[in-house]
UniProtKB/TrEMBL annotation:
Species classification: Eukaryota, Metazoa, Chordata, Craniata, Vertebrata
GO molecular function per UniProt: phosphatidylinositol binding; zinc ion binding
Pfam family, one: PH
Region annotated Disordered, chain positions: 222-249
Organism: Regulus satrapa (Golden-crowned kinglet)
Compositional bias ranges of the Acidic residues kind: 238-249
Name of the protein: Pleckstrin homology domain-containing family F member 2
GO cellular component: early endosome membrane; endoplasmic reticulum
Gene this protein is translated from: Plekhf2
Biased composition regions of type Polar residues, renumbered to the chain: 222-232
């Protein structure tokens, strides 16, 4: 069906509508062979709280942005190549239900659908698109992904030293390797993670020691599958501001 729609006028028109919704600040989305598979609102677990985001699934990319005007205007466009995506289901807990992880080498995060049916449809379509892309390219699935950041609300003290309490003065920081919420003294070092940035990024002392000695696998396992224990945040508290995890901390 994707091949049949690739060059259809209806598909071209739908993609053009998505482009226009992002305005001049968004990147062009129309290229030969690209097909819009589906779209919808998902709740994205950000650094400070869950937020509503509009997602668009194409046969080769996943696009999402902030909702400015429902079904009419979006900003802060993010484009994720599906070839690098892996997804994992998340167990339901409290208000956070029907969720899964979207993991890539540069960025990983949790999203939640309104119903179990929507979750199943999103996951099935994403997996199908990824499978088709890998089959055509002959590539293997990515086995490297960025850590999912622990939300600020889940840490009242540094997750490394277990001593420093967070206050308006003693700010929270995130290790780019393990995703833990850490204090300044526990994350003063920088390390080059090429998949995430061309410049050295903030990491905690624990990960720095492991990376410096080449024990990367141990560092990665420190956060492996930890989001099966979902944070107990309210899904009703959403806003349209920037993604918190894109900040410098």
């Amino acid at each position: 069906m994707v091949d049949r729609l690739a060059n259809s006028e209806a598909n071209t028109r739908r993609i053009s509508i998505v482009e226009n919704c992002f305005g001049a600040a968004g990147q062009p989305l129309t290229i030969p062979g690209r097909v819009l598979i589906g779209e919808g609102v998902l709740t994205k677990l950000c650094r400070k709280k869950p937020k509503a985001r509009q997602f668009f699934l194409f046969n080769d990319i996943l696009v999402y942005g902030n909702i400015v005007i429902q079904k009419k205007k979006y900003n802060k466009q993010h484009i994720i190549p599906l070839e690098n995506v892996t997804i994992d289901s998340i167990q339901d807990e409290g208000d956070l239900r029907n969720g899964w992880l979207i993991k890539t080498p540069t960025k990983s995060f949790a999203v939640y659908a309104a119903t179990a049916t929507e979750k199943s449809e999103w996951m099935n379509h994403i997996n199908k698109c990824v499978s088709d892309l890998l089959s055509k390219s002959g590539k293997t699935p990515s086995n490297e992904h960025a850590a999912v950041w622990v939300p600020d609300s889940e840490a009242t003290v540094c997750m490394r030293c277990q001593k420093a309490k967070f206050t308006p003065v003693n700010r929270r920081h995130h290790c780019r390797k393990c995703g833990f919420v850490v204090c300044g003294p526990c994350s003063e070092k920088r390390f080059l993670l090429p998949s995430q940035s061309s410049k050295p990024v903030r990491i905690c002392d624990f990960c720095y020691d492991l990376l410096s000695t080449g024990e990367m696998a141990a560092c990665q396992s420190a956060r492996s599958d930890s989001y099966s224990q979902s944070p107990k945040s309210s899904l009703n508290d959403v806003s349209d501001d920037d993604d918190d995890e894109d900040s410098s901390d």
